Amino acid sequence: MRKRACDTASICIGEEKEYNKQRWDKSNMEPDFKEGEKVLVSTINFKNLKGPKKMRYSFVGSFNIVNLIGKMKKRSPTPPEIVEVEDTPGTVKKLIKARKIRLNGKDQRQYLVRFKNKTADKDKWLEEEALPDGNIRLRRFWASRRAEKSHQ
pTM of the full predicted structure? Predict the structure, then answer.
């Protein structure tokens, strides 16, 4: 199922790239004028023109093109292809916290788990059933919590 989802996602991303390329190419064309030609300049973005808008000229000029600048910007690189990530996070180092959440009308306890050789940003909330060696780890976790409370 995951393979099929990845295939569908990659097809959709390919179609999206093609669609965006067509839209970009349609609206961002290289100018077709050369140096030395005469051109008119649009007054749409001029803020210093006075009088009613409908009485203003739409274009002013004619101006000689002295030098062309501002070539089309390079297209940004496309994102890398989707790489399948392993679902096995590793072995459990310790349990950090516990919380109760309500799923399907029932209270369930979840535990924040830190994995060996992983940083804190990789911590995950897992249910009791998903913990490897769950009974042993849970007993140690609750014993350490009781010990912390008794020392306070």
Answer: 0.41
